Amino acid sequence: MASILSPAFAYTVVYVKDVAKSVAFYTKAFGYCVRRLDESHKWGELESGQTTIAFTPLHQHETDDLTGLVHTPGSGRQRNQVEVCLDYPDVDAAYKRAVENGAVPVSAPEAKKWGQKVGYVRDIDGLVVRMGSYVGQPKSQ
């Protein structure tokens, strides 16, 4: 009997209006380093630990498996089906940096009953970005 290995989570692809602008935004607002930005600006990647955050245009049709338009929320009040969650040791400082660099504030960081501090912003394409402390991290004074 063959063994089945659990797959590693490789990356998340975010469909955006402008790949180069999104890569630059995530670099400034959230502190990432660029892994790759191809010359055509149809693919970009950020260094994000064991996984990768990748960006491609909203209307990408270059591969056989992408056959339709990406549907986005009709208003700024509707929630996307996916949100990007980032962990920081200092959520307040990270939130401030993100907002100062163009992220749209949704809710300021606050302590949650399960021991995590969490704040929300929207990126330049309207995607919700959850900024939180590591779960189980000791509370700072």
UniProtKB/TrEMBL annotation:
PROSITE patterns: VOC
Coiled coil: none
Highest taxon above the source species: Eukaryota
Record-linked SUPFAM superfamilies: Glyoxalase/Bleomycin resistance protein/Dihydroxybiphenyl dioxygenase
Location of the VOC domain: 8-134
Residues of the signal peptide: none
PANTHER family, sorted: GLYOXALASE FAMILY PROTEIN, VOC DOMAIN-CONTAINING PROTEIN
Name listed for the protein in its UniProt record: VOC domain-containing protein
